[in-house]
Structures are given as structure tokens and as C-alpha cells.
Amino acid sequence: MKSSELEIAKIRDGGDRFRQKVDLAKYVIACATGLGALWLIFEGLAKIVARQDADGISALAKVIEAVHIGSILGYIFGAGAAIAWRKERLSKKRAIREKSRYQKMVEGGDKNRSSSGLNESGDDPEEE
Q1: Where are the domains of the chain?
Q2: What values do phi and psi take at 112, rounded to 5?
Q3: Terminus of the chain with fewer CB atoms < 10 Å: N or C?
Q4: Model pTM score
């Protein structure tokens, strides 16, 4: 390996480590922001509930009614499930692509092999 190739590899490695640190920082900031928002909401609700009188309970009921918590949680759950399904599907397709590449290298010119019926990208083959 030439020294220039080694330097390029070191620069790429440094760039990858920097990208990972930035991604970690973004994740930590997003989590801290979300937790801070939840803390503020619950802190405000605690002051309402701590009074334990009819006005406090009525105010809490009005807040919950105005926010439509059930609908919001339903949409959040649905969006989360859709995102998780999409990530899982893309991961499967990536794994099938890699497996297909290695399988072709190993099996070479064997035209009579039968596999799952998926093409190299992990999709269903086109109907002919």
C-alpha cells in the first residue's frame, strides 16, 4: 500500500468518525429536547392536578380534550409502525442483494439452481 493510499484511508476514517460523532450529538440533542418538553408538560400538569379541586380537574379535562391525545398518539404510533416496516423491508432487500452477489460468485454458471424466486434486488420478479 502506498503512503498516499494510507493517507486517504486515514482521512476517510477520520471523516467517518466525525460523522458518527455528529450523528450521536444530534441524537442526544433530540432526546434531550423531547425529554425536556415532556418534563415541561408534566410539570405544568402537576401544578394543575396538585390543587385537587373541581376547578383543577376541570382545567385538566379541558386541556386533554383540546389536545386530542388519543388521535395524536394514534398518528404517532401509525407513523412509527410505517417507518419501522420500511426500514425492516429495506434491510431485508439489502441482505438479499448481498446474499445474491455472494451466491452468484459461489455457484458461478449453474443455471439450474432454484432459490426463493426473488430477483437480485430482493423484489418479486416481473410477471411475464
Answers
A1: 1-67, 69-105
A2: -95, 15
A3: C
A4: 0.42
